[in-house]
């Protein structure tokens, strides 16, 4: 019996990294639903005592972070930052709760952002500045991805963000009856359930390793 395809809808580079981590022989359809583009804003690191990274997407639009204190959400973001990692948090709430630093700090992020990190840290007495350094532009799904997502044949859809969940449903309407959706977190799962009326599988921990393990298990049947 053929394995169900895995539909990867993260930005191209992120989707390719996930595909490379899957078991050999796994059929993968890469069709980003979002493209990451620069806004033209820049960050003068000399003005700050540290950088907050809630997504690895910001890293490519920043100067070299070697030697710069960085406070990250997720081990992958910490690994890619190239900075002096002072904190690796599970999510934005965990970062705000655990961050212990002297400002001013800077939080470069996308135009669409959740968690109000800078606002909450400022309220806690840690001076933090927001910079919208990239935008998340909607991208049409490929015909192959739409067919797999809408069809009756088994398929696997990892969902990494609530935003992606909403964009997918806008494009495909009702998902196929045998679509196996895996949500990175409860927040992502709730977004999918609100849009489709279906509750997906949810990762125990919102990490890339946990997501990969669940995709591999689902693909193996």
TrEMBL record:
One GO molecular-function entry: uroporphyrinogen-III synthase activity
InterPro entries for this protein: 4pyrrol_syn_uPrphyn_synt_sf (IPR036108), 4pyrrol_synth_uPrphyn_synth (IPR003754)
Coiled-coil blocks: none
Tetrapyrrole biosynthesis uroporphyrinogen III synthase domain location: 23-211
GO biological process: tetrapyrrole biosynthetic process
Record protein name field: Uroporphyrinogen-III synthase
Species whose genome carries this gene: Maritimibacter harenae
